[in-house]
Amino acid sequence: MAWQLQEAKARFSEVIQRARLEGPQTVTLRGQRAAVVLSAADYDRLSSGEPNFIAALLGGPAWGDEMIAAVNDRAVDLPRETDF
């Protein structure tokens, strides 16, 4: 749910309760998204230090010398021309 800032301030307890029961609550300022209220459980899960997808990809095993040599020695020929 999106809450206008004034409404979120006036009904802060409800914003918190809904964040706990329904999930993140968006707060808008002058019609623009300004903040998101999360439950403590959601925040803990997001900040737990679990690797994200990019970190998982970059954190793979190191390449051995043979693999590096194979990549560096691959063909660098230009692709053939095609007629369409």
Description:
With 84 residues, the chain is α+β, with helices and mostly antiparallel strands. The protein has one domain (2-72): YefM-like domain (YefM-like fold, 3-Layer(aba) Sandwich). Helix content is 45%, strand content 17%. It has helices at 5-10, 12-22, 40-46, 53-58, 65-72, and strands at 2-4, 25-29, 32-37. The chain has a 3-stranded mixed sheet with strand order 1-2-3. Strand 2 (25-29) and strand 3 (32-37) form a beta hairpin. The protein starts with a strand and ends in a 12-residue tail after the last helix. The model has no long low-confidence stretch (mean pLDDT 89).
Secondary-structure map with pairings?
Blueprint: E1 2-4, H1 5-10, H2 12-22, E2 25-29, E3 32-37, H3 40-46, H4 53-58, H5 65-72
Parallel strand pairs: 1-2
Antiparallel strand pairs: 2-3
